[in-house]
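Teaching note: in complex prediction, the entire set of molecules is handled at once rather than each chain in isolation. The prompt given to students was simply: 'Predict the structure of this complex.' The entities are:
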Amino acid sequence: MIVNIAILLVCQLIGEATTRALDAPVPGPVLGLALLLGTLALRPAFVPRVAPVANGLLAHLSLLFVPAGVGVVAHLDRLGSEGPALLVALLGSTVATLAVTAGVFVGLRRLIGAKP
Amino acid sequence: MSPEVIDIWSYLAREPLLWLTVTLLAYLAGDGISRATGRAPLANPVLIAMLLLAGLLEATGTPYADYFEGAQFVHFMLGPATVALAVPLHAALPRLRGLVIPMLGALAAGSVTAILSALLIARALGVEGATLLSLAPKSATAPVAIGIAESLGGLPTLTAALVILTGIIGAVTVTPLMNALRIRDWRARGFAAGVAAHGIGTARAFQVDPTAGAFSGLGMGLNAMLTALLAPWLVAAFT
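The expected output is the structure of the full assembly:
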């Protein structure tokens, strides 16, 4: 388990250091993700060394957003008088984005004849 | 309360242990309710846990900063969990064959829709200035969105709140919306959840289906990068 965690943290650390050094518009953990993905693709033997903790963390990914979510509720009044307009914009835009993304995905897949 | 109880409370309230434990318990309650309802979209574990905790903070008069002393240990794990997405993505790689064009097309369309539709709706409702700019990167994952908001002249703390709310809205609406649109491909459903609603959408996708989860993680990562590139350009064209 400690090896699992260490691998995840090393990838994140390299990611954070690189994005800071290069001032890249990508967060460190996303670069760490790419680094781990590259490692797993080149060395599939690594998979069992990270999979237990990785899958355990992802099974409870929801938990990790709770502290930030509490902060939003605690500061909801800061949205101010524009709060209702912002909520309508978020709702409309999120639903539109979901529909457009999934629709284009399925449409293009059919167009090029990839198997469903 | 008796003096002993007040003593114990003032001790506990200062220690990270209390709010860390309460955060885990609130999540377990939220997850339990979510399971009991067969993962009903509205019974979202993040939503339930954050409402329970916010109510508890309000009732006990605990400032958010004190709560975060304990909750930061959970919050910290977001970074390693993002790296961990490489594992399901690696497992999904064989299923990516032939999907590069659908994915990139869906990413481009989704990313532009996320930015422009938010700006258009909010402006039509009278939102302007820094508040409007804060809205542009709302579908990107929080650290990227905050960086984008800063560079656009938005309000980073407002953006952080808008990002979280977007995630919750996406996680709650994705299942009924996809069912209504009769989109049954888990890859398309998951990818859309990640593009529109970043990590919270991805957490929802993992609850529903592992393939959806992997594609959602991919959509989240790709949209973070594309939003960083597109947002300054689209906002300049828009304003």
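Point out the following to students. Residues 84-238 of chain B form one domain. The mean pLDDT of chain B is 92.
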